[in-house]
TrEMBL record:
<dbReference type="InterPro" id="IPR003657">
    <property type="entry name" value="WRKY_dom"/>
</dbReference>
<protein>
    <submittedName>
        <fullName>Wrky transcription factor 41</fullName>
    </submittedName>
</protein>
<dbReference type="GO" id="GO:0005634">
    <property type="term" value="C:nucleus"/>
</dbReference>
<dbReference type="GO" id="GO:0003700">
    <property type="term" value="F:DNA-binding transcription factor activity"/>
</dbReference>
<keyword id="KW-0539">Nucleus</keyword>
<feature type="domain" description="WRKY">
    <location>
        <begin position="97"/>
        <end position="159"/>
    </location>
</feature>
<dbReference type="Pfam" id="PF03106">
    <property type="entry name" value="WRKY"/>
</dbReference>
<dbReference type="InterPro" id="IPR036576">
    <property type="entry name" value="WRKY_dom_sf"/>
</dbReference>
<keyword id="KW-0805">Transcription regulation</keyword>
<dbReference type="GO" id="GO:0000976">
    <property type="term" value="F:transcription cis-regulatory region binding"/>
</dbReference>
<dbReference type="InterPro" id="IPR044810">
    <property type="entry name" value="WRKY_plant"/>
</dbReference>
<keyword id="KW-0804">Transcription</keyword>
<keyword id="KW-0238">DNA-binding</keyword>
Length: 294
DNA sequence: ACTATTTGACCTTA
DNA sequence: TAAGGTCAAATAGT
């Protein structure tokens, strides 16, 4: 606001274009940072339990075909549903390993979407009756991103075939070795709404999260690492709140809505494991988001 | 031979 | 009725 007011006062024939450009740049930078702070707050709004439990247990009339093609009225329970967005820039593409084995059973062009949606079900559906499914669709905004929607929980025993702690070790090794871009499998989960599976121990210990789409926050280090289940721990969330509620920030007011945040391409987590990234945020900004988007 | 994927047809849902 | 979701025969891969 301050920069904008300054710019406003400069709009006269005497103001130099360079001066105005500088102020414009500062305003744009502030907007970026503001959105980053909103992303932090989105962590809490996205994880509102209601958003994931609303479908659970609700009965719905439907008709299913029996062997004789007769239509039979039945009740069914809608499966619990989760969604997350995955950024993939490596060779794995949408077939990245999330620890479960999936069988592709369909592909569909979606209206007003540039990329088809792929349908997967758990490999153990027939053998163990596991009803978990997932849908994968390349993002329209950024071809490096995939929207993944999980439906139903795994009840199969043969799941989680991948030792994720080993994967994390490998990722940390790559990070420490400062491996270049070539031939490194990159997988960044940048948005997650209640991961459908019980996080493994190594995941909660290593939980790291970072903002997506915000170039200043997509560090080269993070983009070369493998992250799985990036929800912040309770301690980290508490830490976030502490930062946001510190004296420096006591005047900040957030007025976001979950929907707008979730739909924002900037929605994501900030990687708290990289301290200087947090330092990059100018937390002294005052934001009233309701005015921000009107 | 067995398993996984592709893809057009069919079914369900709103 | 259109769009999304699933089925299953054909095909590909091992």
């Amino acid at each position: 606001m301050e920069f904008a007011n300054r710019l406003k006062s400069k709009i006269d024939p005497l103001a130099s274009p360079e001066e105005c450009d500088l102020l414009l740049e500062k305003i744009l930078s502030s907007l970026d940072k503001s959105l980053s702070i909103l992303n932090l707050k989105a962590v809490n709004t996205i994880r509102d339990p209601f958003c994931c439990s609303k479908n659970e247990g609700s009965d719905l009339d439907y008709y299913s075909r029996d062997q004789g093609k007769n239509m039979v009225s039945k009740k069914r329970k809608l499966l619990q549903q989760w969604s997350k967005q995955v950024r993939i820039s490596g060779i794995e593409g949408p077939n990245y390993d999330d620890g479960y084995s999936w069988r592709k059973y369909g592909m569909k062009d979606i209206l007003r979407a540039n990329h088809p949606r792929a349908y997967y079900r758990c490999t153990h559906r027939n053998t163990q009756g596991c009803l978990a499914t997932k849908q994968v669709q390349k993002s329209d905004e950024d071809p490096l991103f995939f929207d993944v929607t999980y439906k139903g929980k795994h009840n199969c025993k043969a799941s989680q075939s991948v030792d994720i702690s080993q994967e994390n070790q490998k990722a940390n090794y790559n990070k420490n070795q400062n491996v270049g871009n070539q031939k490194v499998e990159n997988l960044n989960i940048i948005k997650e709404e209640d991961f459908p599976f019980t996080p493994l121990k190594s995941e909660s210990e290593n939980s790291q999260f970072f903002a997506n789409s915000m170039e200043p926050f997509t560090s080269p280090i993070a983009s070369e690492s493998l992250y799985l289940s990036l929800l912040p721990t309770q301690e980290e969330e508490f830490e976030l709140d502490q930062i946001l509620q510190s004296s420096k920030l006591s005047h900040i007011e957030f007025s976001t809505t979950p929907t707008s945040v979730i739909n924002s391409p900037f929605c994501g987590y900030l990687d708290l494991s990289v301290d200087d990234q947090v330092d990059n945020i100018d937390l002294s900004l005052m934001i009233d988001v309701s005015e921000f988007f009107t």
